[in-house]
Amino acid sequence: MAAPDRPTPVPGRDGVSALKVMPGVEIPPPPPALKPARRNAPDPAAFALGVLAGDRVQLARAITLAESDAPRHAVPAADLIQRILPSSGKSIRIGITGVPGVGKSTFIERFGIFLCEAGHRVAVLAIDPSSQVSRGSVLGDKTRMEELARHPLAFIRPSPSGGTLGGVARKTRETMLLCEAAGFDVMLIETVGVGQSEITVRQMVDFFLLLLLPGAGDELQGIKKGIVEMADGLLVTKADGDNQLRADAARSEYARATHHIQSPTPGWTPQVGMCSAVEGTGIRDLWETIQKFRETTTRSGVLEHRRADQSRAWFDALLEDGLHQWFLSRTGMAEHVDRARNEVLQGRTGITAAVHSVLERL
User: Fold this and answer.
1) Contact (Cβ atoms closer than 8 angstroms) between residue 56 and residue 91
2) For 269, which DSSP code?
3) H/E segment holding residue 291
4) Which of 32, 93, 123, 252 lies in disulfide reach of 179, CB 3.0 to 4.6 Å?
5) Which has the closest alpha carbon to 289: 89, 111, 99?
6) Terminal CA-to-CA distance of the chain, rounded, Å?
7) How far is it, in rounded angstroms, from Cα 59 to Cα 52?
């Protein structure tokens, strides 16, 4: 009697290969399960050597490590900064701010190219505003500064602000030190935009530049006095074509206004100029002003004192941040804070009493 026919296996459903197997050919065993790739722990020593050698790839990776919020990266990042610290601090740090539409990116590109052509190595730390909803950021400054991004003496690092007040990323100081250690002698820090909280950029730069639009009058009244009081230099942009006369009039108005405001830098009178990023006018005059500022403040000791104040502010900020994290990490503290906050939101407890109840748990 003939052997009964066996049911034909259905490929992919009966546990067999979907490939057709010829008679007499054995099916090879399945490959061993692949283990997920294990990331190596960051090596601060290797990063530091790469940064000091001017390796851009290593510099970018080192900045990523310094900007990381992962707890496992805290110690390696601190070790990295400690290793490169002696080679930092030799640049001129310039903060640049202005209202949206004033042309910050266009100006920075033209200014950066001018500096590169003069032989300087320029690092641009461009801070992009982060979404309060998604916490994401466009990080499009490299697309707005295409020519400067391609220059061999320039380095552009866009970073999300992360919602940080002050218009700068939380780890901008560490990034600045790493770029200085990599040999960049001019630092351009572009802030998010003008606002009263943005004066914190004053605490990390030597020269603070405020960009202004042509047309004084009502626009002068609309600018925050706190920002003007922090500026070492004011520059009216877009001084070309039909704007030429308006820009000159605005420069005169701002120059008169600064005489009624106390200078943020002892021994230095804030300078007011105008420029056209399109035509390249006024750029050289600005750089001469910044060089004069550096010579004046170095000779008087003001720059050294300012750097000390910056370090003090940085220390206090990091200490406050560390204490906050330590406080919330204590057992049950985060839950107690949430309960106290909810009682305030529901109107059952006053804010002062709720905060006292949290602090009493210490």
Assistant:
1) no
2) P
3) helix 283-300
4) 123
5) 111
6) 90
7) 9
Q: What is the pLDDT of residue 351?
A: 94
Residue 236: beta bridge partners? 212, 274
Residue 331 structure tokens: 């057992």
Contact in structure between 328 and 321 (CB atoms under 8 Å): no
What span, in angstroms and rounded, lies between the C-alpha atoms of 88 and 183? 8
**Which residues lie below 8 Å from residue 20, measured CB to CB, with a gap of 6+?**
none
Provide the token pair at 352.
Answer: 């002062």
CB of 93 closer than 8 Å to CB of 184 = no
CA 93 to chain centre: 14
- Looking at the whole model, is its pTM more than 0.85? no
**Sheet (strand 271-274) strand order:** 154-160, 122-128, 186-190, 92-98, 207-212, 233-236, 271-274
DSSP state of 331: T
- DSSP single-letter state for residue 136: -
pLDDT tens, position by position, 192-229: 665 544 666 778 899 999 998 887 544 554 555 667 88
What CATH number has the domain spanning 88-299?
Answer: 3.40.50.300
CB-based contact 234:254 (threshold 8 Å): yes
For the chain, domain boundaries: 42-87, 88-299, 312-359
- Is the pLDDT at 150 greater than 80? The verdict is yes
Q: How confident is the model at residue 35 (pLDDT cuts 50, 70, 90)?
A: low
Class of the domain covering 42-87: mainly alpha
| Neighbour-count burial of 53, counting CB atoms closer than 10 A to its CB (0-12 exposed, 13-18 middle, 19+ buried) | exposed
Distinct helix (H) and strand (E) counts, the chain: 14, 7
CA angle centred on 347, ends 346 and 353, rounded to 5°: 115
